[in-house]
Amino acid sequence: MFYTEEFINHLKINHYSYSTLKAYRKDLSHFEAHLTCNNIEDVINISKPVVLDYLKTLNGKAYPTKAYCNQITRIIKYFRYLEEEGIIFLSPLRDYSMPKHQTKNYPVIGKVEMEKILMDTKTVEPLCIKGKAIIELAYSSALRPREVYELKIPDIDFKQGLLFIEQSKNKKDRVVPVGMKALAWIKKYLKEVRPRYIKDKNHSYVFINHKTGERLTVWGVRWAIQETLRRSGNKPIKPYSLRVTSATDLLLNGMNIVYIGKLLGHSSIKTTRGYLRIDLKNLKQEINAKHPRMRIEEYLKQGVQP
Fold first, then answer.
1. What residue spans define the domains of the chain?
2. pLDDT by residue (tens digit) across 206-258?
């Protein structure tokens, strides 16, 4: 017996999302099939070599992928549950060292390019108004694509200039500021575009699919951004790059990394550091402008007592 359903129910009680439960069920079903092929019918007979052999079949690439590491994490949690429930004495992966996967590198949008996107985007067509509103919003508040398409009208405080981000990554709520330009474009979209396409749908999501009237998906966000830029003669960008660019620009303009982390919704400064991309040229300029030693040297050159 593998106790898969008992484990899934345990995750449900702990408020795991439907998509996450689906991923766990899929991975564990595949794992069970592997065990059955090896004549193992009960969890108490699963040894560490058997599990390690199974893990070798998952990746098949030169470097560990994020999907591969997620699969391992799910199996580790499964065995941890069995151990905590007393179904097995010791998890076969208790001392297993997780491989490190290469994180996606979302490039920072250059200053000139970002200014061109913000200033020269054409907004004659309804799609472009939606795309412009999404770009301004994501860049203003450093939002994840998911936080854009899950945003609801009641989550926006137009008077205070605040957004309520509900149950984002790791089930955390947060409140973030949003700029007046972004709010102005959201108002324009809500007034001029959304009513034409909402049809008879009864929901309060801000950004909707212009064909179905339903909430946008991550692909819908990407399409709106890239098609809007294409029609304005700009290069396509990745939606997540707006978040990374916003965080990096804030750092370069002097914002404390702790506040940037709060804006991004990070629990750890280490995570925030991974978002910030500063090229060597900008780094050298910042050091020359702000490092105490450089400033003393400049005073001395001018014959001024520091």
1. 4-84, 111-239
2. 999 999 999 999 999 999 999 999 999 999 999 999 999 998 888 888 888 88
Q: What is the DSSP string of 185-251?
A: HHHHIIIIIHHHH-TT----BSSB-TTT-SBP-HHHHHHHHHHHHHHTTPPP--HHHHHHHHHHHHH
Residue 134 near residue 225 (C-beta atoms within 8 A): yes
CA–CA separation, 242 vs 116, rounded Å? 14
Q: What is each CA distance from 146 to 4, 178, 222, 267, in whole angstroms?
A: 30, 17, 11, 18
Q: List strand residue ranges (DSSP E) for 68-184, in order.
A: 156-157, 162-165, 174-177
User: What CATH code is assigned to 4-84?
Assistant: 1.10.150
> Does 111-239 carry CATH code 1.10.443.10?
yes
Rounded to two decimals, the pTM is 0.64
Given the structure tokens 């008992």, which residue do they identify?
A: 6
CA–CA gap between residue 74 and residue 59 (Å, rounded) = 15
Token pair belonging to 225: 């951004």
Contact 127, 225 (CB under 8 A): no
Beta bridge pairs of residue 208: 215
